[in-house]
């Protein structure tokens, strides 16, 4: 072969070899770059998902703390709670409202109330007494947490919430001092109680967090697991008490394994492979975005009804205030009337279905521009932005009332509800979320006080009404502390002879500032303030002591349903009778049928214990409620009192007389003696006597009189006519 040709061939081989080497080098370098890029994508995807999971877990921890903080703040900043803890009935109130609810409350399972001197008032876990000292159970960190709570001076300040290793495991624990919401209420800083709520991180709680925040395989560990992702839970000193741990999902690694077979094909399909990697990356990013959107949705929406929750409501209201541009912001607060009775009668599952039905009705009845939220429990809110036109107020309010007033068909039951609505309207320039909520809340309370099922628009005068009620409550509390409640007595006379057979003790009160206050005003105030037990016991004690001076006649005393729910009521009544020296057979306690419906088991036990003591029990206001014949037999009443509204229509109304006669005939058929109250004319007395009533009571015979007036008449003549209109 010629040298020139060899040289040319060799040169070409070198060129081909160089090209091949260059091609191999470029391909190898490109392959390495691709592989490294793939590996980088895989690791980045893993890291992004791990970071998302860590952020979600941190959010879960913050949600636990925030939920508990909000729950403690709502319960501790409560006028009723502050007043109750300064009353003699505080322990029973705490157990009823906080301690027993821990057994099924999703926000806390342990409730403790401690006074400023460290005395434990109540300590319950899962609805049962804790059984040991809370300091032993929670450890020394509890004292530090309580000290932090007492250092919070301003109402609405941050509630300290930390994680503590307790005797029952790791728990998120918070504490706050119990203060009134009303700024006018005087607060004794040196005599505040601390409210402690705890929620133990049980497997079910951790599993719920795992589901809600989409973190699979989450567990609670006392030590850090280096093979898993971890988020620490810190105590009051910043020390790691425990860790939330879970395995990494490694989405990038799974994606790499899915395309590994394609990589073996080689450079021919490298472009397709790179395209696949790009698609995988886009899919991962899309999935992360979807997870973020889902987490945000869960954070701002109620999982039961799908409406906005309290956080979503606050977020919307804040944006609405910023963007209203001079328009009026209208807030309607809705509180369902009778919802607690539904829960008590048919269970929380039925109650949840009812809440869903109410939410659906609100969506259907209200305009599309109305923002509807569930704030918690049976409380909803509706926000609209528009003019201050009263017609627009009525459109929203009417829609709300229509939504809740019609019957609901739940599991074959027809449930009738109602709703009380408080409305507050402000211009955006004057709007503050706290003030808007406060004024709407005042209007809501006024709607409830007016008989429920109403809508009240906030006016400045409502502040005066609330302040007057607060003043009356304070004065009534002061009166009861000095045992200064007055008692009058209205005679019960024999329908035939008109001789005194007994008296009914009636509470009377005169406010130091407003003068005489009607019982239908101060008794509901006493019930709401937790003073009814003290008031009732004072009336019972005075009536028993006074009646002991009157031989051969009995005394009747009204008992509040709240008193009858107290398991110590019968024992205390027996002590009063023994001290007064009054024969129990001369005492008749009058109850209304409301307690028979709301707490039938406790009512049956209390009535049986009273009858075993020798005390008689009468059913008051018979004929206007729902007491059935079965209930009359089952509870074994000694007497029925016909409501005065039935006697008021007897003059000249034959239908009213027929109804009255039929009511008495029913009682007589059951062999239960009957008292007719509200007798004001001789014709009413005659009809009542002929219908079968053996005792009469009313202004025809006497107005309520003092004990001295009763004594003067009773010992001078048994005829009641002498005492008529004293």
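-> sequence recovered:
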């Amino acid at each position: 072969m010629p040298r020139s040709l060899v040289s040319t061939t060799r040169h070409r081989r070198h060129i081909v070899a160089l090209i091949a080497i260059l091609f191999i080098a470029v391909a190898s370098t490109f392959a390495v770059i691709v592989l490294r890029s793939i590996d980088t994508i895989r690791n980045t995807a893993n890291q992004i998902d791990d970071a998302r999971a860590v952020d979600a877990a941190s959010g879960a921890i913050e949600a636990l703390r925030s939920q508990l903080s909000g729950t403690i703040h709502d319960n501790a900043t409560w006028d009723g709670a502050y007043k109750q803890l300064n009353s003699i009935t505080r322990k029973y109130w705490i157990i009823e409202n906080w301690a027993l609810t821990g057994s099924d409350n999703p926000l806390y399972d342990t409730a403790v109330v401690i006074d400023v001197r460290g005395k434990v008032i109540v300590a319950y876990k899962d609805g049962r007494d804790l059984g040991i000292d809370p300091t032993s159970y929670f450890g020394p960190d509890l004292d530090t947490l309580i000290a932090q709570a007492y250092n919070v001076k301003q109402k609405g300040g941050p509630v300290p919430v930390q994680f503590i290793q307790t005797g029952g495991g790791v728990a998120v624990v918070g504490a706050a001092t119990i203060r009134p919401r009303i700024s006018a209420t005087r607060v004794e800083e040196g005599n505040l109680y601390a409210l402690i709520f705890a929620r133990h991180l049980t497997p079910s709680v951790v599993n719920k967090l795992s589901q809600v925040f989409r973190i699979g395989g989450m567990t609670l560990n006392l030590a850090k697991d280096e093979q898993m992702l971890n988020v620490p839970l810190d105590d009051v000193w910043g020390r790691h008490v425990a860790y939330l741990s879970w395995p990494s999902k490694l989405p990038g690694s799974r994606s790499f394994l899915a395309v590994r077979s394609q990589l073996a094909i080689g450079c021919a399909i490298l472009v397709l492979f790179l395209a696949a990697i790009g698609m995988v990356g886009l899919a991962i990013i899309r999935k992360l975005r979807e997870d973020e959107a889902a987490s945000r949705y869960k954070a701002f929406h109620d999982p039961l009804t799908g409406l906005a929750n309290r956080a979503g409501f606050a977020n919307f209201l804040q944006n609405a205030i910023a963007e209203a541009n001079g328009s009026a912001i209208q807030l309607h607060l809705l509180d369902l009337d009778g919802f607690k009775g539904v829960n008590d009668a048919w269970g929380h599952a039925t109650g949840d279905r009812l809440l869903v039905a109410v939410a659906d009705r609100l969506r259907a009845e209200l305009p599309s521009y109305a923002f509807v939220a569930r704030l918690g429990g049976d409380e909803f809110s509706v926000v609209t932005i528009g003019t201050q036109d009263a017609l627009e107020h009525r459109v929203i309010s009417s829609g709300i009332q229509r939504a809740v007033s019609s019957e609901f068909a739940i599991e074959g039951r027809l449930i009738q509800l109602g709703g009380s609505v408080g409305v507050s309207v402000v211009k955006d320039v004057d709007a503050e979320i706290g003030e808007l909520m406060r004024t709407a809340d005042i209007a809501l309370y006024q709607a409830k006080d007016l008989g429920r099922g109403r809508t009240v628009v906030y006016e400045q005068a409502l502040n005066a009404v609330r302040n007057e009620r607060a003043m009356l409550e304070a004065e009534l509390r002061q009166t009861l502390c000095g045992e200064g409640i007055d008692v009058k007595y209205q005679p019960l006379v024999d329908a035939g002879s008109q001789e005194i057979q007994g008296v009914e003790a009636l509470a009377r009160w005169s406010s130091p500032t407003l003068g005489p206050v009607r019982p239908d005003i101060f008794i509901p105030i006493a019930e709401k303030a937790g003073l009814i037990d003290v008031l009732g016991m004072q009336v019972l004690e005075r009536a028993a002591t006074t009646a002991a001076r009157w031989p051969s006649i009995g005394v009747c005393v009204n008992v509040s349903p709240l008193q009858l729910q107290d398991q110590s009521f019968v024992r205390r009544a027996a002590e009063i009778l023994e001290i007064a020296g009054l024969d129990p057979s001369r005492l008749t306690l009058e109850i209304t049928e409301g307690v028979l419906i709301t707490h039938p088991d406790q009512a049956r036990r209390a009535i049986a214990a009273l009858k075993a003591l020798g005390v008689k029990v009468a059913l008051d206001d018979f004929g206007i409620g729902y007491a059935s014949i079965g209930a009359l037999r089952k509870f074994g009443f000694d007497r029925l009192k016909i409501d005065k509204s039935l006697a008021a229509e007897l003059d000249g109304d034959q239908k009213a007389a027929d109804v009255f006669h039929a009511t008495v005939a029913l009682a007589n058929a059951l062999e239960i003696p009957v008292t007719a109250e509200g007798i004001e004319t001789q014709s009413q007395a005659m009809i009542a006597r002929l219908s079968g009533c053996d005792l009469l009571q009313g202004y025809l015979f006497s107005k309520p009189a003092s004990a001295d007036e009763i004594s003067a008449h009773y010992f001078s003549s048994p005829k009641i006519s002498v005492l008529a209109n004293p």
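The chain has three domains: 60-246, 310-459, 490-723.
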